[in-house]
Amino acid sequence: MKHLLRTYFFYLVALFLATQVFGSSFTLPVDLKQWLIAAAMLSLLNLLLKPILNLLLLPITLLTLGLFSFVINAAVFYLFLQLMPQASISAWTFPGFTIASFAVPALELPYLGTLLAVSVLVSVSTNFLAYLVE
């Protein structure tokens, strides 16, 4: 039970982080109840569906040296967006920045690129939080 609550909290924090990083390109409703439902739905999808997909698609993941796991993350996140119609993703424009003559140019991601980036951010942040707790 403690593991489920911890995972739920991690996904709640990860969704908040993703909405802050991607701004208006990834939105969730402002209602706290909807945030709690979204975190519960995403954590259940990742706890129940993702291991099944990882097992079924293991040969492809091995052939791509693990890179296909990003596609699996994006597919689970896409299913989350379909089940949670209040959440939305649109194209995202990274404004770029310059630090001490090191410039990172502006970048525009289409819908699928934003979906992949948000799913990777959520996955990395939940794994990082789990690493910190253990």
TrEMBL record:
<keyword id="KW-1133">Transmembrane helix</keyword>
<dbReference type="InterPro" id="IPR007165">
    <property type="entry name" value="Phage_holin_4_2"/>
</dbReference>
<feature type="transmembrane region" description="Helical">
    <location>
        <begin position="114"/>
        <end position="133"/>
    </location>
</feature>
<dbReference type="Pfam" id="PF04020">
    <property type="entry name" value="Phage_holin_4_2"/>
</dbReference>
<feature type="transmembrane region" description="Helical">
    <location>
        <begin position="33"/>
        <end position="49"/>
    </location>
</feature>
<feature type="transmembrane region" description="Helical">
    <location>
        <begin position="56"/>
        <end position="81"/>
    </location>
</feature>
<keyword id="KW-0472">Membrane</keyword>
<keyword id="KW-0812">Transmembrane</keyword>
<protein>
    <recommendedName>
        <fullName>Integral membrane protein</fullName>
    </recommendedName>
</protein>
